[in-house]
Amino acid sequence: MSETLLDEQVPVCPTCGRRTGRPPMGRRIRRARRRRGLTQAQLAERLGISASQVTVWETGYRRPSLKSIYRIAKALDVDVAVLLGID
Which domains are assigned to the chain? Predict the structure, then answer.
């Protein structure tokens, strides 16, 4: 169930150009979902939520709760650490 997302782009500071950390969680969710070949609607159905909630997470307007992160990881068959950006 472990998968790394090493080809993600890390956010860069627009002023100094330094890396600012790991990619946002929404981007990691989207990347894992796409790698599984799922649409937002299909992921939402697996989670029992609306597709608009998946959009809210993936666009970064809101972060999923820890319970939701666990459920997303299970639905996408990835380790929770992947979604949290922990190596």
Answer: 25-79 (1.10.260.40)
